[in-house]
Automatic annotation (TrEMBL):
The keyword Chaperone does not apply. One of its GO terms (molecular function) is cytosine transmembrane transporter activity. Pfam families: Transp_cyt_pur (PF02133). PANTHER family: CYTOSINE PERMEASE, CYTOSINE TRANSPORTER CODB. Gene3D superfamilies: Hydantoin permease. It is a multi-pass membrane protein. It is found in: Membrane. It comes from Fodinibius roseus. The chain crosses the membrane at residues 29-49, 61-82, 103-121, 141-159, 166-188, 200-220, 241-264, 284-303, 323-340, 346-369, 381-402, 408-426. It comes from the Bacteria. Keywords: Membrane, Transmembrane, Transmembrane helix. Its main location: membrane. This is Cytosine permease. Belongs to the purine-cytosine permease (2.A.39) family.
Amino acid sequence: MEKTDSSLQSNEVGDAVRSRLPRDKRMGFWSNTFVLWGLVLVVSSLLVGGMVGTQLPFKEAMIVILMAGVFNSVVSILIGIIGARTGYTSAMIFRYSYGKMGVLLPNFIIALTTLVWFAVILNLTRDAFVDMMGIGSGSPVLFWAITILMALIFLIPAYKQMKWIAYVDYLAAPAIIIILVVTIWGALDVGGGLQAVISQAPVASASALVVFTSAAGGWLHANTVISDFTRFYKNGKQAALGLFLTYGVLMVFQYIGATLGALATGEWNIFLIMEEFGMLEITFFAIFLGSWSTSMAAIYFGANMMSAPPIPEYKNEEQTRKLVLLISWGIALCFAWYGPDEIFNFFLQFLSWVLGPIAITVIIDYWLFPEKRKLYETKGGLPDMSFNPAAYLGWMGGFLVGYFSQEFFISLLNGMVVAGVLYYGWMRYALRAGTTPEQQLSLLFSGTTPADEGE
């Protein structure tokens, strides 16, 4: 009877989107790392790498790719360790810096942009398939039937649980490595060798600093919510090693391979690159696995963001997650109808402007304020604010500076620095005074603090 009750409770908790992940649900190092490889070794990395290759000369492209690898490794490790140590999803972690109600801002932003990512990958995969099968615009019913069928396939593992995502990634990660090898081989074959491919590199059509913002922003989205995956590691050291292998090594090689493919063909879309090689039909299934891996991960943590408090619970944790997941999937289909893949380059930059300030705020709050870190890690530790105005000020300042400084240095870093300075300055001032930014703001405008009002 005791075992049955425990099993029932485990099913109700599921992947624990509203509480700390139980220790018995954590997975081994390689199982977790394969999930990360399935997340990163995917079509989106090939798309970003292809974009770099069509806009920059070879040497500049390599510098941008290496910089993006270092940046993504550092950000993902600093945030990922938090998830491994606490067992919390990103949405639960964000409550400590943004507040119990204030967390709605980052949760909504990340959930919405995640659904756009899902739509981008869905559309690109669908378009390649219908072109390959010769299905034209004159068959709208068949066109959208294929779209919905693919979207359902992308949804199913995320609807089940994390271990089902891992099952798909066991196939997807090796498949995308094969695609990477084929891309490099095809580029060298079609381009006439490495030196010939390099000589075909375009004259810079964009600033290397702007392209870095797109290249880094392409994975900043996943890095900001990487805790949804690293909380399944057994400890922070495993998470750090897995993330380094993923972003510092494999992602860099994938960017380089896609860049070579873009230089050889003039295309940034991996499906079009394979078509130029005359290998789309042969490699489509492997690329499809990569699309599946990216999309199911995106819809999974997008739904997690809006399943956490203060969103009301429906029946239990797992039922709440599944309900929000289905709603998110429907919204993603609406985005697919709109066609966000048509503005892919701008979308990557936009991600960096809106997500960079969120990422740096979370990093600073955990790593630079030891007195707050105890709240994260202590069993039963709760956020000490309902709404943190310092986090909101940092986000608004960072977003505006990032957006309006596109012609100055690196807009991604500009925004993150401003957000970090604003947040750290106000939080440090408040902590030294033995209070919080929320209490300071309330005292300034009403003469009372939230604690006074509670009494």
